[in-house]
Write a structure and sequence with these properties.
The protein has 501 residues and is α/β, with parallel strands linked by helices. Helix content is 54%, strand content 13%. The chain is elongated and about 95 Å long.
Length: 501
């Protein structure tokens, strides 16, 4: 319910406007009134309404001055001027002062209702954008202002779950995926740091399933086809709205410290898996890197070193170590190779390749292969063997992506088609593109979707989504809005309006 403040010095006119809002405008409520501009300004500072409706001529402080003051101090408040024909010059000045709308007296209920409908659409969009900003900040550990938080999260209780496909997000800015939000009309709020993730925030009153756990596991099963594995962290019971920031922080911490490469997990409450508690490996002495260091130091044959690296990963898989633990050991591996001058890549480039290897790995076997390719210098040999380190070869990959957008495409699929390693595919994108594989693929798909919607405006959104490789139309809509700034429906309506001009 949006909050309205009314400034009007005529009691009959004030009552008339209040009655129209009460009967004709169910999305609004009057939270305060004043018969002069100064009193209105003082009350607005405390009440923080969404809309100010004010007459032009009032004692002490007129409506034009009031609107200017509000615009300077609270630009997010939408102002509406009400006045007669004889005050048109005042209205013109008000419009220059940033007034949202102007209504002539006598106020007709039907006209007022239509203007408020338009204002509600503007507020819906503004709340959507500001709520998304708040969700993003909470996910980054920034605590919101309590008063503002209550405005954007009005339900008393919420269910919360965090769902992640494959590994943890990449750390490099230029290779991150597309940040996603729910589309505006979705009642369950969704946020993802990239397209592989979804934080679900569900008002308690929306839950029609037997339990939130059942709802989320059902959604996870729908998503599993597009992921090698997934990790879901949730709270089974609803939490108070004021607890959301801390609960979201806890979910992300649990995800970071529990995700295991290649293992499907559903983790409830305090990070306890339904199957077993994830083994972090803390305090476990690990002799495998000691043996690897001896081999590297003694310049053992490459095949022995490669086998030892694989042995490490298979033992870590058996012991169930988390991604963060394994990342730490992999960096130790790279340190060993660098210490004995067995690695030519720079530290920065190695960090990039490690990042990519973990992000795309479907399991520990695949991760081991990627790391072995980097440390075994196989990339250089591969490039010499088939001469693929060229812009022309990269363009062949890009062309293939564009021609197969409707198909399920993963880095592994592309590597099989072109006979290259995943590590080398990452290197090609690093060298010849400003974006990583997933972001490039998503942008191509949205670009194609826009073309389809222009040519075939009668298609359903779900059909367009399927034609560019998205099985879930809501996921497609989120990606579409993140890329274009508007939903697919708004895009099609806008395109239709332009074609009529």
């Amino acid at each position: 319910m949006y909050r309205v403040f009314i400034a009007e010095d005529e009691p009959a006119a004030m009552k008339h406007i209040c009655t129209i809002i009460e009967i004709k405008c169910p999305g609004f409520e009057v939270v305060g009134t004043a018969d002069n501009g100064r009193s209105a300004l003082e009350q607005i500072e405390k009440l923080q309404p969404d809309v100010l409706i004010t007459d032009v001529k009032m004692p002490v402080m007129d409506g034009i001055t009031l609107v200017k003051r509000i615009g300077e101090k609270y630009p997010e408040i939408l102002s509406v001027i009400i006045s007669g024909y004889q005050d048109f010059d005042y209205a013109r000045e008000a419009l220059r002062s940033g007034v949202c709308d102007y209504i002539l007296k006598p106020v007709k209920p039907s006209t007022f209702q239509e203007r408020m409908r338009v204002i509600q659409g503007k507020l819906d969009e503004a709340y959507y954008v500001r709520r998304n900003r708040m969700i993003r900040e909470m996910c980054r550990g920034i605590l919101p202002d309590e008063k503002k938080f209550a405005r954007f999260f009005p339900s008393s209780e919420y269910y919360v779950a965090l769902f992640r496909k494959n590994g943890l997000p990449r750390r490099f800015v230029n290779s991150r995926g597309i940040e996603i939000f729910s589309i505006r009309d979705e009642q369950m709020m969704v946020y993802g740091r990239d397209e592989m993730e979804a934080l679900y925030i569900c008002p308690r009153e929306l839950l029609f399933h037997n339990s939130f756990y059942q709802l989320m596991t059902h959604m996870a099963e729908k998503e599993k086809a597009s992921a090698a594995y997934y990790t879901m962290v949730l709270r089974e019971e609803a939490v108070l709205a004021i607890q959301l920031p801390e609960v979201i922080k806890m979910l992300y911490q649990t995800l970071d410290y529990s995700l295991i490469i290649g293992r499907k997990q559903v983790i409830v409450k305090e990070g306890q898996s339904l199957d077993e508690k994830a083994n972090t490996g803390s305090g476990i002495w690990n002799p495998y890197l000691d043996r690897l260091e001896i081999l590297v130091k003694d310049h053992a044959p490459n095949n022995k070193i490669q086998e030892e690296i694989k042995c490490c990963f298979m033992k870590w898989k058996e012991e169930g170590h988390t991604q963060l633990w394994v990342e730490d050991k992999v960096r130790e591996m790279f340190g060993i190779f660098r210490r004995y001058h067995a690695l030519d890549e720079s530290i920065e480039m190695c960090e990039y390749f490690i990042d990519e290897a973990f992000y795309y790995a479907a399991d520990m076997e695949g991760l081991a292969d990627n790391i072995r390719q980097i440390l075994g210098r196989s990339m250089t040999e591969e490039a010499k063997r088939i001469k693929i380190d060229t812009p022309e070869f990269f363009e062949k990959i890009v062309k293939y992506l564009r021609e197969h957008l409707a198909e399920p495409l993963s880095p592994q699929d592309i590597c099989e088609v072109f006979g290259i390693s995943q590590t080398y595919l990452s290197r090609l994108f690093r060298k010849y593109s400003t974006m990583g594989f997933n972001k490039t693929l998503n942008l191509f798909r949205i670009e194609k979707a826009k073309e389809i919607m222009k040519d075939k405006s009668s298609l359903y959104i779900k059909d367009v989504a399927a034609m560019v490789g998205y099985g879930d139309q809501f996921y497609f809509s989120r990606i579409f809005r993140s890329v274009t700034g508007i939903s697919p429906t708004e895009y099609m309506e806008k395109d239709g309006e332009e074609s009529l001009i």
